[in-house]
Amino acid sequence: MTVHRLAIIGTGKSVGNHLSAIRAMGERVELVAAVDLDETRVRAISEANGIPRWYTDSAAMLAAEQPDLVHIVTPPAPHKALILQAMDAGAWVFCEKPLCASLAEFDEITRAEERTGRRVSTVFQWRFGSAAKHLKRLIQTQALGKPLVGVCNTLWYRTQEYYDAPWRGSWKTEVGGPTVTLGVHLADLFLWLLDDWCEVTAMAGTLDRDIEVEDVSMALVRFASGALGTITNSALSPRQETYMRLDFQQASVEVTALYRYRNEHWQFTLPEGVENPAALAQWQALTEDVPGNHDAQLRDLLDCLERGETPPVSGEEARRILEFAASLYKSAFTGKRVMRGEITPDDPFYDAMNGSLQETPLHHPI
Ligand SMILES: NC(=O)c1ccc[n+]([C@@H]2O[C@H](COP(=O)([O-])OP(=O)(O)OC[C@H]3O[C@@H](n4cnc5c(N)ncnc54)[C@H](O)[C@@H]3O)[C@@H](O)[C@H]2O)c1
Is domain 127-295+321-351 classified as CATH 1.10.3720.10? Predict the structure, then answer.
């Protein structure tokens, strides 16, 4: 068995998700090094987790360790540069969301993938739980009929102190508000399940936090299948909830959770008074109970690395999600409906999520 050499860049608050996922891979992997600009932090994390070597410079780590896979867990602004650096050093990349700051950066990453033959997968762990995968199969086989109506709500609560962290709340360093940070997990799952989106109409505003980016956004989406959906991303909702609902011709499927789900968080409902043992049996065929977390995504990524296959949430599939976020912002800033594919390199929203390389406060909702 090949043992993959892994390294982590960024050992802040979210590194725990990656450390536990790496531990869950057992002998398939060896975590050889960690990097952080903050020496005290990287040293402490390395000592506490038995990571043999630590660095404060990613280039030095890559040259010395030659890892097969690099986990990038830094704030978003340096993601693109670190991804290119890691791929040029021969590694595949597992990078936290948001993957990068713009479609322009994404296309640069794609060119680097073509040049190096290496691949980048964005962390979108909600797709990888067994219930989500099961539902995707049911949609692909039309077991519940056509999808018609979708609701995707990420109603979370983040205080001003949360946004006082140095990189939070600005277009340049956080890339956006809950649209690309908090709500993006459920939105990714929603857009994956319902497949090709065609158009979006959105509003966003900065209603109650002292930040440049939005603290709430709402979008109406039309899918190629004809289905219609709504997406709400909020950092202002005291009773927090992550809720998705898909209404098919024959049944409703819902998930209500917060940061993780298991099968018990999903609900299946037939229309009142309708007996449909075939549809029910299809849903109840779900027996595995894998939560949608970093472990599940890392396992699939390693399988692809071993087989030399394009991993999930990379390439066109990852671009589709980033393009959705860029289009949502374009619609919110311009007050117009945005069609898929209309953000081309001559569009200001190609280079920056807020359509401007200047800092643009969004204090006055459009
Ligand atoms: N998938 C999830 O569920 C999830 C949850 C929370 C956060 N995140 C994402 O994880 C990432 C990190 O968030 P966080 O809360 O851990 O941030 P954090 O500020 O707590 O930690 C980031 C660390 O990266 C280090 N760093 C910054 N630039 C660096 C560089 N060039 N080289 C090496 N180290 C560098 C910082 O010194 C810091 O220690 C963000 O992209 C965030 O969106 C994902």
Answer: no
